[in-house]
């Protein structure tokens, strides 16, 4: 068996608030293999956002180890973490986080600037991923000229542009209507089918059920970890 893409061992994360220590993650053990499609769920205060920040190398644990793609990232300094984030992780956020006065093409190409690619290589790759998310005809549009769903597609293309090990999506349908949410989840299904590892953070059961594995957190520990048959996205919605 190949080594897991993500291996977290006894991860704890405490925060000091005044004179008090808040124990948010209380010893998490987790393995995620390359090519998995995982949903991370939990009520507010469960620790899922803290765990997502650790998985995304936006934060480091108080104790425990995190091996990402063979590298121990748990003790890395900020500049090392920034490099890992740019190479290994593609982020998709609820609020899209696009530069407002910049075209879709330049928004998508942005991570490649930090990775040191030439302008022609950046534009070529950004064009490829915009085609992949069906936005080839919107490359020269700025975010305010795009619908919410189109903006999220730009954000997904930007997440894919550096060919990361992991796509990490935080409530990616939180600002979208149900029809557009369905389209975005279909796109994540396609991205996963192309071999990408997808980790989805959501509080919505119906969104989580697009994933093949659901990890539920409660009070800083993993409450359940189940692998299931994926729901067909084409199935009729009943309700």
From TrEMBL:
GO cellular component: membrane protein complex; plasma membrane
Stored PROSITE patterns: ABC_TRANSPORTER_1, ABC_TRANSPORTER_2
Keywords recorded for this protein, A-Z: ATP-binding, Nucleotide-binding, Transport
Matching Pfam families: ABC_tran
Listed InterPro entries: AAA+_ATPase, ABC_transporter-like_ATP-bd, ABC_transporter-like_CS, ABC_transpr_LolD-like, MacB-like_ATP-bd, P-loop_NTPase
Gene Ontology MF: a single term: transmembrane transporter activity
ABC transporter domain location: 6-239
CDD domains membership: ABC_MJ0796_LolCDE_FtsE
Family the entry assigns: Belongs to the ABC transporter superfamily. Macrolide exporter (TC 3.A.1.122) family.
Protein name as annotated: ABC transporter ATP-binding protein
Organism (species): Flavobacterium gawalongense
Lineage, opening ranks: Bacteria, Pseudomonadati, Bacteroidota, Flavobacteriia, Flavobacteriales
